[in-house]
């Protein structure tokens, strides 16, 4: 169970704007077009499952290989994979993912959206201390987007992911963002 996610859901109920992404793209290969207009971004936090990889796999989805290489070139040693499925346990998958992607995987005991202090600690070793210079990229509103918004880090919501999910939480998140964006126009 994601205790951090559950507790932060109540924050969203009190402050719904926490669920509104700063930017939205349908798929991961659209992320560079957003980042091209954000010179103040110096580091990336990227979710794994259904963002750049198929759920349960430990490698970049082939369609996104060129995008991944581009981001690695633009953000050397400043691209951090933060996943609630990999990196939260010492199961060896983090090492496999690092080997397959060439990017660091955050080891954390608190799941998203509550692990941002660990993210800041990681990036401080690379000279990045300002949350607003770290973009949070992911397909989940109630973890990735909320984590960015809670910490003044811009969020890029990958709305369709690798595969458009019709799971109850994903359908709810898409409805919620659509509703909140229309309400705030």
From TrEMBL:
Family matches, as Pfam families: PGP_phosphatase (PF09419)
GO annotations of cellular component type: extrinsic component of mitochondrial inner membrane; mitochondrial matrix
Keyword tags: Signal
Signal peptide: 1-19
GO molecular function terms attached to this record: phosphatidylglycerophosphatase activity
One GO biological process term: cardiolipin biosynthetic process
UniProt superkingdom: Eukaryota
Entry protein name: Phosphatidylglycerophosphatase GEP4, mitochondrial
Organism, scientific name: Tortispora caseinolytica NRRL Y-17796
Organism placement in taxonomy: Eukaryota, Fungi, Dikarya, Ascomycota, Saccharomycotina
